[in-house]
Amino acid sequence: MEIRVKTVGERRRRRGLAVASALLGGVMVLSGCGGDEKPARPDAQERADEAAAKETSVAEISITPKDGTDNASINNAGHVSVKKGTLTEVEVKTKDGQAVEGEMSDDKTSWKPSGQLERATTYKVSVTAEDSKGRASHENATFTTVSPSNSFIGNFSPEDGSTVGVGMPVSIRFDKEITDKKAVQQGVDVSVSSGQEVACHWFSTTRMDCRPQEYWKEGATVTMKLALDGVEGAPNVYGVQQKTVTFHIGRNQVSIVDAETKQMKVTRNGKTIRTIPISAGAPDNKTYEGQMVISEKFKETRMNGATVGFTDDDGKGEYDIKDVPHAMRLTTSGTFIHGNYWGQGVFGNANTSHGCVGLEDAKGANDPNKPGAWFFENSMIGDVVVVQNTGDKTVAPDNGFNGWNMPWDQWVAGSAV
Known about the structure:
four-stranded antiparallel β-sheet
């Protein structure tokens, strides 16, 4: 076996090559890209970034709606919330600088405007929050609420908190034509404490009424919830209402007018409490028949025949009485039940009116002992007046609040849901 002994020169050359190889290897490591290893010591920028990250707040602010939104809700826009922190400052202003009042939650994690925002208005929101270490976070947004031309509202009867008679339906008239009736009707919920089934019926693209099959139960409470905010009732036309309305049903009063006997029986819970002589429409101007609901009351009002088509050859009204006492509207077209001080001896004896139902009364509406005054004081909006034996047609269901004249199956068929 041959043993080779390295010379001193060879050993020195090999050590030099090893050192060179190590140096080259080090250069390759330092200049390599995409590797997992990091330099042992961060440079100045990395140290600065790391320090900044440690000082950043962890509070997460949310603003509804998002920045740049158009057609925003007037009910739910401008709402602010925060996670991992508390709100320290919320400022909502219109574009021209008018501040919006708001309400902060007890735990300071949410804020909302105190009332509805204005339509067609641009709002700017500026929010500051702090996390548990007192580090501040900021957020800003700008949005514009829905315009009147791109929104609809429903004007409803009866009024919130009112007490009405058993015949008063929920009636909603929309200020824009509704093409998606199903979507809108799904945003309206009507319920009653008596448990009666309530159905809604569309009379047109702008009117929807809701009622039970029979009159409301005496003493019941009716609740209507409008969840129309953001509902698209027609292309690019959105609802803006979000509210709950309640009204109460009073005593059950139904008055029955018989044009043949010229008497009216006022009943409560089916029992007659008073019989009053009346004068209905003359043979040439018969009173509508059917179930009619009192929709308005006036202690005194003007009645001009020209407003309802009764004119003479000169185009003037066949009558113009400026102080008709104790008038209560039964139809939109102009049928009233009212006091009458100018008709002498006709009550209970002759039908002489232009279609209204007249009761004996005093000029000035100041004699409480007259039948007209008594009936006025003992009637309320929503009471039912049933007119019989006039020989005229039945009043149209949409002429006033008179949907009770439509059979239930037809009423339900007019629902969109």
